[in-house]
Design brief:
The protein is an alpha+beta fold and about 450 residues long. About 20% of the residues lie in helices and about 25% in strands. The strands form 4 sheets. It has an 8-stranded antiparallel β-sheet, sandwiched between helices. Strands 13-14-15-16-17-18-19-20 form an 8-stranded antiparallel β-sheet, with no helix packed on it. Strands 3-6 form a two-stranded antiparallel ribbon. Helix 1 packs antiparallel against helix 9.
């Protein structure tokens, strides 16, 4: 993939220039990723007197959580952890041991947002044993599973789960299993030069106040890491589907599935397993934001389009939350992606007889044969349940999406071998509406259709 066009680059640069000036940010770096590659980078402001580069470090805050979650999912795939396991099975002795791993990953465990003690983001941290000893009944604020409630404490506990299973710190596990395989060699637990200094910008004067930076120790899995635009671009590419063997693509897709919504009926934002989700501009995005004293960052990826976006700044507050999606909108406006060329596919010719219209009662559906032996079933004219079905070794098909996800589609043939109907988890699909020759549950009125 070549870099963006000059006109696109100019429009992207102007947007971050407006943001840096209008929001009074000491420095701002942003990047766009397409098809696994960084195709545009821009920066404004100064870090130690120089314009930020792709190698300039910023603290990424809660984006750390998504990397910790990736190691947890690796443990799941290895069979060491089940998402339905109670925390107490892996980190015994906590007063919140009944919450599940999945609830912690999706912020539905009902735990308090912050740990006991002083504001952890601005004070030196404590070991995990001390943190756990401070927990009590007040650490649970909602019934587990009842609602979304963001919890930094929950990810501190997940970091301890990782450490106990791997026999090393959560940070070393993330480095070995996530950062190094993805080539993210400039993502570290503590800052290294060149790095941005974190600042608070005075609300009524153009002056800065340096923010403190500490090792959060037990709370570090919630927001400790520092990274660079180049490294975070690699993370965006990972989220968009270039997993580089770090995770099975199906596991990453599972992390991107909505587990909870955090803005009610609007459903513009939610959470999967360790990943924030957003719907904006016709896209469904997965990634995470990060906020620590002196720093803000966000990374989003759209796997359906293999595109990603990120920004990093060294200010406690002020950056627009819509900046990343506005950058994607500029890309769409200036360089809309061309649809893939249609071409014929290798299919099982023996399944061509399945294609065409089918009826569930009076409702018309179309069955298409995809590459190999896979099938697509969708209502004709919209307004119904659709799904992709993947062929199985036993001659059935397994639903992948929506209502039929995980359900089995099978062919039912007559004694002479001719095709009678489709059985989709007791739903009968026939070639004509309510075919009287098929096994329709409840039977078909003998009088037939009438006026």
């Amino acid at each position: 993939m070549s870099p963006v066009l000059e006109s696109t680059a100019r429009a992207l640069l102007r947007r971050i220039a407006v943001e840096q000036a209008g929001s009074r940010l000491p420095s701002l770096a942003a990047a766009v990723i397409r098809d696994g590659r960084l195709v545009w980078f821009g920066a404004r402001g100064r870090v130690e007197g120089a314009v930020p580069e792709q190698s300039t470090q910023y603290r990424i805050g809660s984006i750390t959580k998504s990397m910790v979650a990736t190691v947890v999912m690796r443990l799941r795939d290895e069979g060491r952890v089940d998402l339905l396991d109670p925390l107490g099975k892996h980190v015994p002795g906590t007063p919140v041991g009944e919450v599940t791993v999945a609830q912690l990953l999706s912020h539905t465990a009902g735990l308090t947002a912050e740990p006991p003690g002083q504001w952890w983001e601005r004070t030196p941290g404590m070991p995990a044993e001390e943190l756990i000893a401070l927990l009590g009944p007040q650490s649970a604020r909602h019934r587990p599973g009842r609602r979304f409630h963001y919890s930094n404490l929950g990810f501190a506990l997940l970091g301890e789960l990782v450490a106990r299973h791997r026999g090393m710190s959560w940070a070393r596990a993330v480095q070995a299993e996530v950062l190094e395989p993805l080539g993210m060699r400039d993502t570290t637990s503590r800052p290294r030069a060149p790095h941005a200094r974190g600042y608070a910008v005075h609300p009524w004067a153009d002056v800065l106040l340096p923010e403190p930076e500490h090792d959060a120790v037990a709370m570090a899995p919630a927001g400790q890491l520092w990274s660079t635009p180049a490294d975070l671009a690699r993370w965006a590419a990972f989220l968009a589907g270039d997993t580089a063997g770090v995770l099975d693509p199906a596991t990453l897709a599972e992390m991107r599935e909505p587990a909870t919504v955090d803005d009610g009926d609007a459903w513009t934002g939610g959470f999967g397993l360790g990943l924030q989700l957003a719907r904006a501009g016709g896209r469904r995005l997965a990634g995470h934001g990060g906020s620590m004293p002196g720093f803000l960052a966000t990374v989003w990826a759209d796997p359906s389009d293999r595109v990603g976006v990120l920004y990093m700044t060294n200010a406690t507050s002020g950056a627009s939350r819509t900046l990343p999606t506005e950058l994607l909108a500029i890309l769409d406006e200036h360089e809309p992606r061309l649809p893939a060329e249609w071409e014929s596919a290798d299919v099982d010719p023996g399944l061509l007889e399945l294609t065409g219209p089918w009826y569930w009662g009076p409702s018309a559906y179309a069955l298409r044969l995809l590459a190999g032996r896979d099938l697509s079933l969708a209502p004709i004219g919209g307004g119904g349940r659709a799904s992709l079905f993947v062929a199985q070794a036993d001659g059935t098909w397994l639903g992948q999406e929506g209502y039929y996800a995980g359900e089995t589609l099978r062919l039912v043939r007559r004694a002479d071998g001719s095709l009678s109907h489709l059985d989709l988890n007791t739903f009968v699909f026939t070639r004509t509406p309510y075919d009287p020759a098929a096994e329709i549950p409840g039977g078909v009125d003998g009088g037939g259709w009438r006026g």
